[in-house]
Amino acid sequence: MKLNVKLMPAFMTVLSALYFIYVLSGGDTTLSADAVGGDPGGKVLPLAMAVFMFAGFLYITLKERPDGQGMDPGTKKLFITTLLLSVLYVLLIRHIGFILLSSVLLYCLEYIYTTIDQDRDMKQAVLGGLGTMGITVLAYLIMRTITKSLMHLGRIGTLPGIFTASTFQAMISLVYVALFTFAAGRTLCRRLKAGGMKQIADPGLLTLATVLFLYVVFKQFFSVNLAPGILDF
User: Could you tell me if 82 and 109 are in contact, meaning their C-beta atoms sit under 8 angstroms apart?
Assistant: First the structure.
């Protein structure tokens, strides 16, 4: 099936709008130490990003819209599937958590869009999704253990005080994400491709890297309150 419209900008426009609503519906945080100085709260950065994402993707969607062409049945099916996944993501993220739910959403979207013109093995796809989620959670837990341990050692004086700085912790996490992704690509993904399972190898690796990278950037660099959900420990 060949798509007669470019759907990804349209889907990202919808997802950005849903994310904007999600941020507005959540609680806000203000630093008590800056009550007089006027701390803008924890919603400012996510809201600003949602607005810019929505405006940018809407512009791309309108600019690249083929004149006089409608959606064929296959395109409509993809649109509805992506929309439903996005809505479920917004509704469930507070309960399930950013890491788990983002892994599922990104893997599903990557798998769907990279296998449009291919024969799909649904059993293989499900196993790939579960495996991707499991490896992403494992990588996240290892990363959290490393950063917490280094911070503890820095606080008790075993390591230099720089290890207690949030920015330095975030840099360590970025290096870890890069190394873990590289190792997964050179080992597990290579074996999957050799076994004829490229359909799940590429989406899985991209999901792993993207989810962990977004977590480090938003949570550790910008202190955005990403819902821990089930992994709240």
Answer: yes
Between CA 22 and CA 120 the distance in angstroms is 33
pTM of the entire predicted model: 0.77
The residue length of the chain stands at: 233
Contact at 8 Å (CB) between 11 and 86?
A: yes
Say which DSSP state 196 is in. T
151 to 156, 171, 177, 197, 216: CA distances (angstroms):
9, 13, 18, 40, 16
pLDDT tens-digit series, residues 41-92: 556 666 666 676 666 666 665 565 555 555 567 667 777 787 788 778 777 8
What is the distance between the alpha carbons of residues 30 and 132, in angstroms, rounded to a whole number? 35
Identity of the residue numbered 122: M
Q: How far is CA 177 from the centre of its chain?
A: 13
Residue 49: C-alpha distances to residues 7, 24, 228 (Å): 21, 13, 20
Predicted local confidence at residue 103, as pLDDT: 93
Candidates 17, 40, 21; CA nearest to 30 is: 40
Query: Rg (Cα) of the chain, in Å, rounded?
Result: 20
d(CA 233, CA 209): 22
- CB 206 within 8 Å of CB 110: yes
Dmax over Cα atoms in the chain, in whole Å?
Answer: 68
